[in-house]
Write a structure and sequence with these properties.
Layout (H helix, E strand, L loop, with lengths): L1 H25 L8 E5 L6 H8 L12 H11 L3 E9 L3 E8 L4 E5 L2 E5 L5 E5 L8 E4 L7 H17 L4 H6 E8 L2 E6 L4 E5 L4 H14 L5 E3 L7 E3 L2
Parallel strand pairs: 1-3, 7-8, 10-11
Antiparallel strand pairs: 2-3, 4-5, 5-6, 8-9, 9-10, 11-12
Family: Belongs to the FtsQ/DivIB family. FtsQ subfamily.
InterPro entries: Cell_div_FtsQ/DivIB_C (IPR005548), FtsQ (IPR026579), FtsQ_DivIB (IPR050487), POTRA (IPR034746), POTRA_FtsQ_type (IPR013685)
Membrane topology: Single-pass type II membrane protein
Amino acid sequence: MVRLRALLVVFALALGLTGFGAWALYGSNWVLVERVSVSGEKVLTEKQVRDAARIPVGTPLLSVDRAAAERRLKSALPRLDEVRVLRAWPHGIGIQVTERKPEAVMKHDGKFVEVDVEGVRFDVVPEQPKGVPLLVMEVERSPGLRHFGKERLRREAVRATTSLPDSVARDTRTVRVRSYDSITLELTGGRTVLWGSGEQGSAKAESLTALMKASKGARHFDVSVPSAPASSGS
């Protein structure tokens, strides 16, 4: 009998502690959200990120649906590539973001559509970002358009820009796409580079670097077949 009473007392205490714990986490003022901090933003502002996350201050920290907040952020802010919403006990929520970086821009209605490394169009800006080349799609008559689609062709073009040697990337002003295997880079000084497709980027970059060193007066370079590069013009 004594043992039964002891067990009942322990059970009652456990229930009480469980109830107290639940109240402390969900019903008390001890672990409420008092601040929402943001890190990793560059173009976006902290306010834009906090507003898009829609995490109200004053709600129980444990009741914050982090996955839902992450979905809201990605839906409202296409510039975001990666998002993590974390609890910072006892009174904070941390939002860690990684923004997409423009590798090229496309002109549209007097503004510029930013395109990231995966070919994703993620934002419209009034001016062309410094150092970001203009992507021109001239694929309407391309026989491969139906097979590849504009999205794939755009991705191949951006793939080419990310493979360029730094010195060439700095001088690249326009990336012109006519078909899957006809990507041309227009550089400063009236120079052009026939890159071909987005494939074999590393080999083409090495070939172009060597070709430019060997043909300093040339204005046109062809590395579409990296094992057989060519240059012309002076």
